[in-house]
Amino acid sequence: MSELELRLGIRVLSGTPRTVVATMPVPGNRQPFGVLHGGASLALAETAASVAACLHFAPGTAAGTELSATHLRPVSAGLVTATASALRLGRTHATYEISVRDEAQRLVCSARMTCVAVPDAARSR
User: Fold this and answer.
1) C-beta of residue 24 within 8 angstroms of C-beta of residue 80
2) Which of 1, 53, 57, 102 could form a disulfide with 5 if both were Cys (CB 3.0 to 4.6 A apart)?
3) Cα–Cα distance between 78 and 122 in angstroms, integer?
4) CB-based burial of residue 51 (10 Å sphere; 0-12 exposed, 13-18 middle, 19+ buried)?
5) Phi and psi (nearest 5°) for 20?
6) 22-77 pLDDT, tens per residue?
7) Alpha helix positions (H), 9-37
8) Is 46 labeled as catalytic in the residue annotation?
9) Tens of pLDDT along 63-120?
10) What pLDDT, on the 0 to 100 scale, is given for residue 119?
11) How far apart are CA 120 and CA 113, in angstroms?
12) Rounded CA gap, 18 and 87, in Å?
């Protein structure tokens, strides 16, 4: 886990190249208005998709090339859960749809992310 993921309290619960589930607490990740910060939702979504892409491209790694999201409802307490589901797993690119839900299973954020394979040689630069 990266420093950001540790600070946000993100935990990966399960993972395969096709599906990753991760959680994050809302307390500590709220904007001044008392609701979950949109940037925190995106960090959670990106983490889930990136972990899945890294599993897909193993033993190599992956880098995100595109992330888009729509914030659908505010949440002010509890835990949110992101589920990244593969839309396409290719040789060099992987695209995921990510749903972020609150504890009542209401959709808080809908996101989509594309990752590209990063060869071992490119990581050492």
Assistant:
1) yes
2) 1
3) 39
4) buried
5) -130, 140
6) 999 999 999 999 999 999 999 999 999 999 999 999 988 999 999 999 999 999 99
7) none
8) yes
9) 999 999 999 999 999 999 999 999 999 999 999 999 999 999 999 999 999 999 998 7
10) 81
11) 22
12) 8
Which of the following is catalytic: 3, 5, 46, 103? 46
CB neighbour burial string for 106-123, b if at least 16 within 10 angstroms, e if fewer: eebbbbbbbbebbeeeee
Cα dihedral across residues 71, 73, 78, 79: positive or negative: negative
Q: In the prediction, which pLDDT does 121 show?
A: 52
3 state DSSP class of 17: coil
Tokens of 23: 């959680």
| pTM to 2 decimal places | 0.94
DSSP state of 29: S
